[in-house]
Write a structure and sequence with these properties.
The complex is a heterodimer of chains A (332) and B (432).
Chain A lengths: L1 E13 L9 E7 L5 E5 L8 H13 L6 E5 L16 H28 L6 E4 L2 E4 L2 E6 H10 L5 E6 L18 E13 L5 E11 L6 H21 L4 E2 L2 E2 L17 E7 L19 H15 L10 H14 L5
Parallel strand pairs in A: 3-4, 10-13
Antiparallel strand pairs in A: 1-9, 2-3, 2-8, 5-6, 6-7, 9-10, 11-12
Helix pairs in contact in A: 1-2, 2-3, 4-5
Chain B lengths: L24 H6 L14 E7 L5 E7 L1 H4 L4 E5 L24 E2 L5 E7 L2 H10 L1 E6 L6 H5 L12 E9 L2 H7 L2 E9 L11 E7 L2 E6 L4 H12 L6 E5 L15 H11 L3 E4 L2 H7 L6 E9 L5 E13 L5 H10 L9 E10 L13 H19 L3 H8 L19 H14 L8
Parallel strand pairs in B: 1-12, 10-11, 14-15
Antiparallel strand pairs in B: 1-5, 2-4, 2-6, 3-5, 7-15, 8-13, 9-10, 9-12, 13-14
The chains are: A alpha+beta (332), B alpha+beta (432).
Chain lengths: 332, 432
């Protein structure tokens, strides 16, 4: 018999290291042809940080993303940005890049202010032009860059950002993170009571990321996280016998595959973080965190039997159903 | 992106909030991205690590003479060849680059073989003789915490403890309408990144240069410089395109060994883990045992939680202390709880090392606190959404660590939106 169940999982996640300094730095060079070089220590490990950082620099400088080159993770040229961990790089390196861009931009705006007889604070950059009070001026960004160079002014910026936190005291009191991301996932499962197999049919995954710098990348993180969470809930376990890994091969270590992927409905919630770049927080780890909890609750809902140890394998389910049949003891 | 056509300044939103194609997308899709294992250099050598097969032992001696004599072998290095400090670790420097005194896990690195080809490497590996004296080992954190357990790092096996105390849990438990206590256990899992650990090192213009798959090149630089006993400015770490990490590439893997081999031989050296080596040697997700008591009033409002978390960090600390601290801070879930007593223990055993993995201790506690919420809801006849909405943080809410949350507290909206989506899809039909 197949039994259907629904489960809810919520989570929160502090962005950055726990009650410890974890700064990131960035350098930026606004080159005289209007293209931009961003140097960052931030390692893009596939999550898309270099794209997000390019977008943040492009947004601040009013240039196309194609005109930004991000050189990342080369200690020979880029400043330390700390680890790509703790879901911290969009928030922390994003702020560092934003500050570096502002510093370089300020040189241009000061120069443009002289040309236009305006205050630098009235001016902006966009689409290759200098803008004043929302109106395009005839002055181009390239003109300004050329004037800067003629005067021997380089248009460089550097920035670093360290989230405001405190350590935890003896009673564990303090401000361990400057901001938190939040999420709720709802899982729908079907449990085959003959085989014990759990199929995850659908997941609705709502994530408050502050602001999605790149919505498709955020959705990608959420979908990948859900799959990883399915593995954690139902399939994966490193078997260790007297300290030795017994299943160090994918033939024996079972991962979720594309055929295990449910319908995933990623919902981006944007409650902007005032200290984040354009309001952004993070999503890398939150994507995975509530999935196993939601699935475990959905299995309990389907069967009326709750499991307290992960992963919830077919063997455990069959053993529990057999025991329940023997005793008929209500779980909750 | 242009904005000139309508005479308005291009808004920031023309690039922020837009699904721009990935800047590295084309290189990855066309296969032109050069991963560390794809790199080759003139005169390049190959390296492989000989690893321990026992979980706990005193290392007496390594005899590598026969291995060094194998044709094609350039060098066999042991701990004695390390010019600087032979300890690494992101939080605690407790892990040897090559074991010098004690083996603490199966898979500990004992010797590094460097050769001109893979065949010579394999032949040399089997020629190395390792002499050790086995010690009693401990494989469960409960046993490791108990008196009389073999001390893995000289003193007790409790690496770190985090306590979070707020209000008066015992009084709150007495006043509660429903109290639920359960034990939750979670398993060790592997990151399973697509690309196993890999790197190539060479001395270029006097700089020890390492191209490596990593999540933190600047940390790698610090460790390589310390291990070689040279200035950080003499080491250049270049992150190569990295095929996933999920926390598993935050620790040192090939970096220091490659730096040592390139520095000593003066030639480029490459090392690529097989999947099997990667799974046997890399850090894992902490298995946890979580004892969780929750109490609420008749409306389902949380009054107190009491939580004890024990995490098995294996042979070395890696990110364990931070993982267990984060687990403690997040143990309430995204809910306001006036009275808490939370303690978490990071414990050494002779198991594989557990370190950082996506979620950092929070997937473990989320399984527990969310099961508890459903159990409380069941005890009071409440809907799972209702009990969560009654307790979730709002702006102005205070966390277990006493932090007042002022801005960007979107948990309620995520509950509302996920529920609305589930309703729209018909997922809740016949359920509530």
């Amino acid at each position: 018999m197949k039994k259907r169940g629904i489960g809810v999982g919520c989570m929160w996640y502090g962005i950055g290291n726990t009650g410890a300094p974890n700064p990131a730095g960035a350098f930026l060079d606004f080159l005289e042809d209007g293209t931009v070089l961003v140097l960052t220590g931030c390692a893009d490990i596939g999550q898309g940080s270099s794209t997000a950082l390019a977008q943040i620099a492009a947004g601040e400088l009013g240039v196309n993303i194609e005109d930004i080159l991000v050189v990342a993770g080369d200690t020979g040229v880029s400043p330390d940005a700390g680890a790509t961990s703790a879901s911290r790089q969009t928030y922390i390196s994003g702020n560092a890049v934003l500050l570096a861009a502002r510093q370089a931009k300020e040189v241009l705006l000061q120069e443009a202010a002289g040309v236009l007889g305006a205050a630098a604070s009235e001016l902006g950059l966009g689409g290759g032009y200098v803008w004043r009070g929302g109106e395009r001026t005839p002055v181009t960004v390239k003109d300004i860059l050329a004037r800067c160079r003629q005067k021997g002014k380089l248009t460089l910026g550097s920035g670093w950002f360290n989230p405001l936190t405190t350590g935890l005291d003896e009673a564990g009191q303090g401000v361990p993170y400057a901001t938190y991301s939040y999420a709720t996932q709802v899982a729908e499962v079907e449990v085959d009571t003959e085989t014990g197999k759990v199929s995850v049919l659908r997941l609705a995954a709502a994530h408050d990321v502050g602001r999605a710098v790149n919505p498709q990348a955020v959705e990608g993180q959420i979908e990948g996280g859900c799959l990883m969470g399915i593995g954690y809930a139902l399939l994966e376990e490193v078997k260790v016998d007297r300290g030795r890994v017994g299943n160090p091969r994918y033939a024996e270590y079972i991962l979720p595959m594309s055929l295990d992927a449910p319908e995933i409905h990623a919902i981006i919630v944007e409650d902007p973080e005032p200290t984040g770049p354009y309001g952004a927080k993070g999503v890398g780890e939150p994507a995975l965190i509530p999935t196993a909890a939601a699935i475990a609750n959905a299995v309990a809902d389907a069967l009326g039997v709750r499991f307290y140890d992960l992963p919830v394998t077919p063997e455990k389910i069959l053993a529990a159903l057999t025991a329940e049949g023997d005793h008929k003891s209500p779980d909750e | 992106m242009t904005g000139q056509a309508d005479g308005k300044m291009p808004a920031v939103s023309s690039v922020i909030g837009r699904s721009c194609p990935r800047v590295d997308g084309a290189d990855k899709v066309t296969g032109s991205a050069l991963f560390a294992a794809d790199r080759r250099m003139e005169g390049m050598l190959y390296a492989r690590v000989l690893r321990s097969t026992v979980p706990h032992a005193v290392l007496r001696r390594i005899d590598a003479e026969a291995a060094r004599a194998v044709p094609g072998v350039a060098a066999v290095y042991t701990a004695a060849d390390i010019p600087g400090e032979n300890r690494v670790g992101i939080i605690v420097k407790d892990e040897p680059v090559l074991v010098d005194d004690r083996i603490r896990r199966v898979g500990d690195p004992l010797a590094l073989v460097v050769a001109g080809n893979e065949q010579a490497l394999a032949a040399a590996m089997s020629e190395i003789e390792v002499f050790y004296e086995e010690l009693p080992a401990v494989f469960s954190p409960e046993e490791a915490m108990a008196g009389g357990a073999p001390a893995i790092h000289g003193q007790g096996n409790i690496q770190s403890v985090t306590r979070i105390v707020r209000g008066d849990v015992d009084s709150a438990l007495k006043e509660a309408r429903a109290v639920i206590s359960r034990r939750y256990t979670t398993q060790m899992v592997e990151h399973a990144y697509l690309e196993p650990e890999a790197g190539l090192a060479a001395v270029v213009d006097g700089l020890v240069t390492i191209w490596v798959s990593t999540q933190n090149p600047h940390y790698d630089r610090r460790e390589v410089a310390r291990v070689l006993g040279i200035g950080q400015n003499r080491v250049r770490v270049v992150q190569s395109p990295t095929g996933g990490g999920f926390g598993g590439k935050l620790d040192i893997s090939v970096q220091c060994l490659l730096g040592l081999a390139a520095w000593k031989t003066g030639r480029p050296v490459r090392m690529v883990y097989s999947r099997e080596e990667s799974m046997a040697a890399s850090p894992k997700r902490h298995p946890c045992v979580i004892d969780y008591t929750s109490a609420c009033d008749g409306d389902g409002r949380l009054l107190a939680v009491k939580v004890k978390i024990v995490g098995d960090t294996g042979a070395y600390a890696s990110y364990g202390p931070a993982t267990l601290k984060r687990a403690a801070v997040h143990a309430t879930g995204p809910y306001e709880v006036p009275n808490v007593f939370i303690e978490s223990y990071c414990v050494y055993t002779n198991n594989p090392t557990a370190g950082a993995m996506r979620g950092f201790g929070v997937p473990q506690v989320a399984f527990a606190h969310e099961s508890q919420m459903d159990l409380l809801a069941g005890a009071l006849g409440l809907d799972p959404f209702t009990i969560r909405l009654r307790n979730c943080f709002r702006p102005g809410g205070v966390t277990a660590t006493g932090q007042r949350l002022l801005h960007s507290v979107g948990i309620k909206e995520t509950i509302d939106r996920a529920r609305a989506k589930a309703e729209e899809l018909g997922m809740l039909e016949g359920k509530r």
